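Case study 2.
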Amino acid sequence: MSIIDAPKSMAECIECYRAAGNEMSVPRDFIAAWLINNGQWEAPFKSQLRECSQQIGDALGKATGTDPQGREFKRYVAAKGPWTDDQDGTVTQKWLWEDAMTCSRDHARKAIKSMYSNIGKDCKSLHATVEAMNENNPNLVNNPIQLSWDFTDAVEGDDDESPDPKKPR
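Prediction:
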């Protein structure tokens, strides 16, 4: 059966799976794989678009480069900017990605401001978490975690190791 004459409902898809002689005592992922592999189900375009877009964002966010001085850096940087929809001309604010080595000064400034803001939010969350744990976790009340806010080693060091939370600095 081709995708063109595939069943219209998921209930019909399951009946196709069973009619092919497959057992029902399996995880739903197993049934889903069979349906997809046999052309019985295809994700709607919007779902495919959303998943693909998410994977692109993940890849752009993880991509790194090495500058001529040997420093590893984020290859692509995101900043919010105006985006005009091709279909209806609506202008909305979207995350726009650019190459860190060729983006405009305005894009670089916005991207750096966003990254800096995220670091601040992460520090605030970390501080609240450590305080909550130290004050409310019975395993920490008499021996609290000591946290240093000196990030010199993290910024200038060659490794990604965080400081030992047992040792105050």
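The mean pLDDT is 88.
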